[in-house]
Amino acid sequence: MTQTSHHDTAALLRGEGRFCDDIALPGCLSVTFLRSDSAAGDIDTLDISEAVDMPGVVAVHTGADVAHLGCLEVNGVIPYDSPLAFECLAQGRVQAVGQPVAAVLATSRSAGLDGAETIWLDIDSSDPPAPARVATQSWQAGDAPKEASAPITVSATVNHPRLVPLSMEPRAIAARPEPDGGVTVWHSTQTPHRSRTQLAHILGLDAGLIRVIAPDVGGAFGLKASLYPEEVFTVWAALHHGRPMRWSATRSEEFLSGTHGRGLTTSGRLGLDANGRFISLSAEARAPVGHWMPNSGLIPAWNATRVWPGPYLVPAVDISTTAYSENRAATGIYRGAGRPEAAALMERLVDKAGRATGLDPFEIRLRNLVPASAMPFETPTGQILDSGDYAGALDALRRVSGYDARRAEVNARREQGELAGLGLAFYLEPSGEGWETARVTWNVDGTVQIDSGSSAQGQARMRSYATIAAQALGLPAQNISVRYGDTKTCPEGIGALASRSTAIGGSAVFEACQILKSKRDAGADLPLSHDMTFKTKGQAWGYGCYLVQMAVDADTGTPTIEAAFCVDDTGTVIDQQAVTDQILGGFAQGFGEAMMEAVRYDTDGQILTASLMDYAAPRASDVPSLSIAKMQTPSPMNPLGAKGVGEAGTIGAPPAILNAAIDALAPLGITDLDMPLSPHRLWQAIHDCESRKAEL
To answer: Is the bond leading into 151 cis (omega within 30 degrees of zero)?
Structure first.
């Protein structure tokens, strides 16, 4: 199925969406996986004899059946020592709790579950090995910070908990073998063309024999950017048995074997002079990748460090990043993918620098932001900040939030014994780079068909692309239809990743439409069609700042966000509603990371938060109101002037919330806190501080 209407959001609200589980496949078998209950160990016994005789069970497969399959290719954005094994089913040894060990093919899901329960699995469990380095990279610029003479230095460490992306639709895939030896695959994915390419590579097939269709995708947030072992197995099984197969993850399977996000630990030292001017930055990140590496598994480690020192002028830097394996679920890109980690460390350091110099949080930032006159600006890690007025955004936030009055109010409340604070954070959001495609056809009847190499999972892509085409062609938007997500009907493209689709995919639509318009104006008859591959000149860097006001109950530790404000510059805005929706959605997820979400493992590698009974995710009633203000500084990197916005809230909200909590507890002498900022954690920090004072 391909998308054919630009009224995509309305159709979904009416319940007219069509997802992977809605695809009718006569004779389809359900795939169920038996998973490891140990984090590490050799498989001593794997007896499937009883399972194959269970009612409804058609076949049972183990690792030996798929040992010949190839490995998933990894995006090597930083040099990595050696790839981690990509095993559809464990090959004699398990590497993490939740790893697939055997697969049951049955006429129904319930029959598959019954069959899996009869498999005898015995694992000779062993202690998980120590984390091992997988990849590393470093950047140096200016005089080495360790040699620089800085009158004042501040240091900070930020521990980011692992997070579960929690898309409304879990991972899902269905596959139907075709008479020509090929296969049609319906895949809940952000990257249908990448799925086709990687399936061809792993299965040893010609890519032309594989058609991948991404129907409606119920959210992704990075979770669905890579192929998974279960998905590859499902397609292999369809080809091997010559009949359709389907697998849909349960929510618990998402906790166990879906990619997690975050999990990084970042630390750094910032040197500055007595006037509050930054001199040097020494910083490092440690990023887990789990027991296997998704296609984009190295992106968080790369992004977290290449973005430093963020929007600030720092003449000397020494920055490094290390990705390491561990016997846990894989980690991958999750909305923001390293950008929140970059912002969190810098904004903690800058806040500490302000306290060390006695400068207001706004003032310390204004003294060190890259000025608009310096744009485009090359950072110490070689990134090109394309355009922006960072100081203007900060000034706007101060104005729209009524900061000065709020600061006076907070100070007055503190004098009355209340714990209240304000947290400020500035962020950068580099959009994706590279290329994207579009085919635009102007029909005789005046309608226009857009076939995009991009894809979508809830971003109102059809509406945005129809708007771009309508303006370029001088036609009403209702004349324009948009299709994407089908490797047979749409040109090859990258997909929906890294806030890239409007700036790059939209630019491909725009330039194709411009060419058609010029041909039409010169007298060409309809129909007209043009295929466009647009390559961006460089990354478009969105940016913005957040201010959060928080109160903490001294007796219970319960935090309350009393107000939140943001100013975001997303370049030229194509779709005002879509931008607002993206900011609000990102803020909700950033709030979740800061306040309540965390994946927990015990020392044996057992996951303790394997369901929504144990993993706290924000409900609508939990998320505070956000006052949004916008700026528009066009990017010179694409003809639309657009910048990304899909990850803005997840980047800016956590450090602002964290800074607000620390500011609220600062009168007690508390200078550092870890996320999530649960009532228990805040109460414990207050209690520990009071205990230390009592001992003096």
So the answer is: no
CA distance 265 to 345: 9
What pTM was estimated for this model as a whole? 0.94
Rounded CA separation 102/20 (Å): 23
- Single-letter amino acid, residue 406: R
**What's the distance, CA 128 to chain centroid?**
28
Distance (Å, whole) CA 450 – CA 454 = 11
For β-strands 528-535 and 627-631, DSSP reports them as unpaired
Residue 187: beta bridge partners? 173
Q: Within 556-647, where are the H helices?
A: 576-595
Cα dihedral sign, 217-222-225-229:
negative
For residue 460, CA distances in Å to 101, 393, 473 come to: 39, 27, 20
In order of 513, 548, 611, the CA distances from 537 in angstroms are 20, 35, 44
User: Which pair of structure tokens corresponds to residue 315?
Assistant: 């003449």
Q: Are 662 and 670 in contact (CB under 8 A)?
A: yes
Distance CA 25, CA 21 (A): 10
Distances (CA, A) of 466 to 6, 422, 548: 7, 41, 36
- What residues does 60 pair with on adjacent strands? 104
How far apart CA 249 and CA 21 sit, in angstroms, is 11
Domains, in order of start, for the chain: 8-127+171-248 (3.90.1170.50), 261-431+539-695 (3.30.365.10), 435-535 (3.30.365.10)
Distance CA(28)–CA(6), nearest Å, equals 32
Read off the DSSP letter of residue 576: H
- Round the CA-based radius of gyration of the chain to a whole number and report it: 26
Hey, which residues does 93 pair with through a beta bridge? 42
Listed in sequence order, the residues at least 6 apart from 484 whose beta carbon sits closer than 8 Å to its beta carbon are 2, 3, 214, 451, 452, 453, 454, 455, 456, 461, 490
Name the β-bridge partners of 514: none
How many Cα neighbours within 13 Å face the side chain of 51?
Answer: 26
* β-strand pairing of 132-141 with 480-483: unpaired
Six token digits for residue 453 = 């190499």
Give the pLDDT means over successive 10-residue stretches in the chain (696 positions). 48 86 96 97 97 97 97 92 90 97 98 98 92 94 70 97 96 97 96 95 96 93 95 98 97 96 97 96 97 95 97 97 96 95 98 97 98 97 96 98 97 96 97 89 95 82 88 92 93 79 89 95 94 92 97 97 97 90 95 97 94 95 96 94 92 98 96 97 93 80
Nearest to 430 by CA among 318, 332, 343, 328: 343
Q: Find, among 210, 214, 186, the residue nearest to 199 by Cα.
A: 210
Say if CB 631 and CB 568 are below 8 A apart: yes
Residue 556 and residue 682: Cα distance in Å, rounded? Answer: 8
What are the beta bridge partners of residue 133?
Answer: 324
